[in-house]
C-alpha cells in the first residue's frame, strides 16, 4: 500500500468489478487538487469522498459542554473554520459536513461518506469513519491507519472506479501528492504508535503544523494510492 491504496469490491454496476482508490494527503490543498483532477478527468462527483482534519489554531480539548468546547463544535459543524482551501473543494461543497470527533477533533467531510458519518452520531464518528472506509472495501487495519492520518492532520480522498480506470485514478492521486501511507505508518510505529486509539488526545494545531513542515521536505509525498 505505498501511496494510494486500492480496495476491491464486487460491484452491481453491470456486473463489473468496482474498486475504491484511496489516498492520504498532508494538506487540504493537495487533497482538493486531487478532487479537482478527478472531476476534470470525468470521474463522477457521486463517487468521490473527501475527509479533512479541521483543527484550527486555539483548538481546545476541554470537555464537551464548556463554552470554549461548544464554540469549537459550532465552528466545525458550520465549516466556519475551514478556510479557503476546504471551502473551495471542487464540486463537493454542497455536501460539506463539519463534525467534532472524539480522539481526532474537528473534521470536514464531503461526498457520499457524509451520510455514513452523520448517521454514526457525534460520539461514534471515529468508528463511523473506519466503518465507512471498510464499507468501501478497505481492510480494517488499513482503515485504522487512514483514520490515524486524519488525526495527525491529514486529508483523505477516495473514489469508486470501474476496474478499467483504477490505475488512472491511482495516478491522479499520486500526482496530487498522496503520501506513502505504509512508510508513514512505519514511522509512527518506530516512534511508539501501537495502533489507532479512539480515546487518544487529538493533535493540537501546533503539533499538526510541525508535522506538515517536516513532511513537506521529505520524499514520501508521492507514495502509493491504494485500491
Instruction: Kindly report how far apart the N and C termini lie.
Output: 8 Å
The average pLDDT score comes to 77
Strands ordered across the widest β-sheet:
4-5-3-6-2-1-7
Enumerate how many helices there are, as a single number: 9
* Helix content class: 40-55%
Q: How many strands?
A: 7
- The amount of beta strand, in percent, is 15-25%
Classification by helices and strands: alpha+beta
Low-pLDDT windows of residues = 10-14, 63-85
Main sheet record: 7 strands, mixed
Using only C-alpha atoms, the radius of gyration works out to 16 Å
What general form does the structure show?
A: globular
**What string, H for helix and E for strand, traces the elements in order?**
EEHEHHEEHHHEHHHE
- Write down the domain tally: 1
How do the strands and helices of this protein lay out in sequence?
Elements: E1 4-10, E2 17-25, H1 28-40, E3 48-53, H2 67-78, H3 83-87, E4 97-101, E5 105-110, H4 113-120, H5 125-135, H6 140-151, E6 155-162, H7 166-176, H8 181-190, H9 205-215, E7 225-226
Parallel strand pairs: 1-7
Antiparallel strand pairs: 1-2, 2-6, 3-5, 3-6, 4-5
Helix pairs in contact: 1-7, 4-5, 5-6
